[in-house]
Amino acid sequence: MENPLSKFFPVENRADGVFIKVSPEHKAKVQIAEIRNCLFQAFVTNFDINKIKEIVEAAKGVFEKIGPLFEIYNPELDRYVDLNVTPMQAAVTISSVAISNDIKVTDTALVFCFRRKGIVHGLNFDRIREIVKNAQYDHEIVIAEGTPPVDGEAAKLIFELDVDKAIKPKEEQSGKVDYRNIQSIVQVGAGQVIARKEPPGEGVAGIDVTGKKVPAKPGVDIAIRPGKNTVVSDDGKFLKAEKSGYLYKQGDLVNVGEQLTIKNDVDFSVGNIKYSGDVDICGGVLPGFTVESDGNIIIRGEAESAKIISRNGSVTLQKGIVGKNDMFVSAKKEINLVFAQSAIICTESMLNIDKYCMHCDITCETAIGSQPHAAIIGGSLIAFSKVEIDILGNEKGIETKICVVDKEEKAIADKMKELHTLQKKLEIEMEPIQKQLKAKAAILKAAGGQPSQRQSDELKKWLDAYNKLAAKLKYVLEKVAALEAELKKPRTYTGYIKVAGDIFPGTEINLYGMTKVIKSALINKTFRIKDAAIVVEG
Predict the structure, then answer these.
(1) Contact residues for 98 (Cβ-Cβ < 8 A; gap 6+)
(2) In terms of C-beta density within 10 A (0-12 exposed, 13-18 middle, 19 or more buried), how is residue 318 classed?
(3) Calpha distance 265→272 (Å, rounded)
(4) Among the residues of 105-176, which ranges form H helices?
(5) Is this prediction's pTM over 0.85?
(6) Nearest to residue 367, comparing CAs of 346, 352, 384?
(7) Torsion of CA 272, 274, 280, 285, to 10 degrees
(8) How many CA atoms lie within 13 A of 502 on its CB side?
(9) Residue-wise over 462-483: b if at least 16 C-beta within 10 A, else e?
(10) Could you tell me the CA-to-CA distances from 509 to 7, 9, 499 in Å, in that order?
């Protein structure tokens, strides 16, 4: 029988196998798929198409071995092979009668038979070899399995913010753990993406034993459900915050709360509060903790040795605040309190006092005693507009200082103090440079005024340093002069201090830099500036 490959190029059947010679001319005319089909149609069971392809592509023009002598399939074997085929599995039963009828059963013959019958994917070659080696006849054996499809994953909601954030203390770079800063609040801005939908997967198609694709089921889609103050984007892909606030879950819904409510104390279970909106604390604030907000803050319990800061809103303290000069309250708008002791209190607006402030350091626009017998006892108060209170000091003559100052004048004075500090610093920095310049000048004079390159470079370095500092100092002095001129401008002082009840000795009244010390008890008096002096009305 002529070798079927001889139609493509020279072939030699030798004792040790089949050899072909492929020249570049043969390579240009032949197609690998055509060779494969030819061998299959010729019932060749043991050809190595990859080896043939390698030799054809090299086209060396010499005889090269492609494998053993060809084995030709006997179609009679088909009669003894019974296939049971489902899309994902093929099982075979080989009749032992084939052996009785001298039909040669080899693993290559079986593979060829299965492929003739359409089983082209997932063949288990090891199992086929076992069938032949162990003469496994007359019972069904699975010889091929399809690749099942992988269904697509369901759509997922991926959170950009940690809604389920575990409450845990913050570890500092030094390794020290700050148990007050546990960061238990997740804040969000209006329009910020809270979560995005990862679309369902398409899945991966499988292949049945006949080589056909088995389609995969696409993953199940989901619809994002908005919670309070959240909105789903028009394309359904994003969950966004409709308003600024903090995140919280209610069942499966994610919500944005505007006013942060702490139902108990601010303590180690809550940690420091840093929030952009309003804060309502139903309990108190324990020592060492901080409450910071851009909005209004209400504290319904007591606060001790804590920091309460509202950058753009008000602070309302429904019970007392107590410290050891480590209690700090600051607000852009008004501060409302019942009583305060040994605290630092600052507001750009009004301070409303129900009962008293004792030994406090207060800065405000206006201080008002909102209830009868409201008192300021000890400490100091600086107001930019007016003070209206019932009682100043006490019968023990405790030192109490009440001041009304011009806000602009105070700002200028504070700026001048800052500039004078900078001026002194620059002058100190210039002293050693001036000494260096004098020393360099003396050296140059002794050398006859002809410096070396090194000396010139050194002198230039010191001159540059001096000129930079001199320029800064000149700027500072100009600013100081301008501020001094501003302070000399005439001003009208309209602020006052009004005391409806007792003013005890030990109280110092200071209006726009003019001082009056109370040496004997007064009652129901108003202090103003008139004709550059403090006048007492009432």
Answers:
(1) 77, 79, 80, 105, 137
(2) middle
(3) 11
(4) 107-116, 125-133
(5) no
(6) 352
(7) 20
(8) 14
(9) beebbeebeebbeebeebbeeb
(10) 122, 119, 11
Cβ 213 vs Cβ 205: under 8 Å: yes
Q: Which amino acid is at 40?
A: F
DSSP string across 286-330: -TT-EEEESS-EEE-S-EES-EEEESSS-EEESS-EEEEEEEEEE
- Rounded to the nearest integer, the mean pLDDT of the chain is 90
C-alpha to C-alpha distance for 308 and 168, rounded to whole angstroms:
22
* Token pair in block for residue 154: 């369901």
Distance CA 36, CA 499 (A): 112
Specify the amino acid at residue 62. V
With 90 as the cut, is the pLDDT of residue 257 above it?
no
pLDDT in tens, 443-486: 777 766 677 778 778 888 888 999 999 999 999 999 999 998 88
Which token pair is 100?
A: 């009785």
Distance CA 159, CA 525 (A): 64
Which of 385, 434, 427 has its CA nearest to residue 406?
385
Given a contact cutoff of 8 angstroms between Cβ atoms, the answer to whether 113 and 131 are in contact is: no
Q: Round to whole Å and give the CA distance between 296 and 520.
A: 42
Pairing, β 507-511 against β 400-404: parallel
Note whether 321 and 296 are within 8 A (CB): no
Give yes or no for a contact between 279 and 315, defined as CB atoms under 8 angstroms apart.
no
Local structure of 102: helix, strand or coil? coil
Partners of residue 157 on adjacent β-strands: 197
Strand partners, 327: 343
Half-sphere exposure of 532 (CA within 13 A, CB side): 1
Kindly report the CA angle at 20 between 17 and 21, in degrees rounded to 5? 145
